[in-house]
From TrEMBL:
The lineage of its organism: Bacteria, Pseudomonadati, Bacteroidota, Sphingobacteriia, Sphingobacteriales. Keywords: Hydrolase. Gene3D superfamilies: alpha/beta hydrolase. It comes from the Bacteria. InterPro entries: AB_hydrolase_1 (IPR000073), AB_hydrolase_fold (IPR029058). One of its GO terms (molecular function) is hydrolase activity. This is Alpha/beta hydrolase. It comes from Pedobacter panaciterrae. The keyword Hydrolase applies. Coiled coil: none annotated. PROSITE patterns: PROKAR_LIPOPROTEIN (PS51257).
Amino acid sequence: MKRTIAHLVLTALILSSCNNTNRPEQTKTHGYSEVNGIKMYYEIYGDGKPLVLLHGGGSTIQTTFGRVIPMLAKHRKIIAVELQAHGRTSDRGKDATFEQDADDVATLLKNLKIDKADFFGFSNGGTTTIQIAIRHPQIVDKIVLGSALSKRNGMPPQFWDFMKQANLTNMPQELKDAYLAVTPDPKGLQIMHDRDAKRMVNFKDIPDEQIKSIKAKTLIIIGDKDVIKPEHAIEMSRQIADSKLAIIPGVHGEYIGEITTLKSNSKEEDYVIPMMESFLDK
């Protein structure tokens, strides 16, 4: 009974978060755009130079960025999107790839008449940001790569073993509840999970020459207890010529208050976001 009550309370909090708290007064626009065969959901906050936010796997805009959007929107026009099969964005009936996600974001920005932007991608969104910088450099100014993966050896071997056996029951409950709060479709939740799991199982290294081709000024952020190995972030910072590296105390996503880390009650975003803004504004 206690577990049921706790689950109901968590669901209510997520619903409130998705519908109210994390869509604050500075929201300018939210809607859908026809993008390469899918209806892509986006939200726009604030005014100023565009900064595109790309969420992690299995996530929505709010589960990844809900804690930091109000901070970032004070000085920027924030364009936050939900990628294929995630949150409110539809599925195209094909496997998800980081390359396709990158092309989808580029098309969305064209539809929104945004010629160039900065990008902040977290986790899978960070890998998508790498692909945007490689495939669409003309739309990129600066990029922030939060816990981004470019090589399989960037993860411990047990991660890949886990992904081969991934199933919906192992997905963090906070992420499942958040998806169903904005898209009450259990079949859609299963599709999102399966697309993300298959993409990771089939993940192939991004070639060194492609990483080295990135010309955008880059800030790489990682937690010292991240699922991504610190050595991987260090190597990527050496491959991208104009890059900086920040290793922050905490686990995967704790430095931006990602929803599964909220129980830690940390406030790392209070100094990470100003650091990121300082990088973007130089």
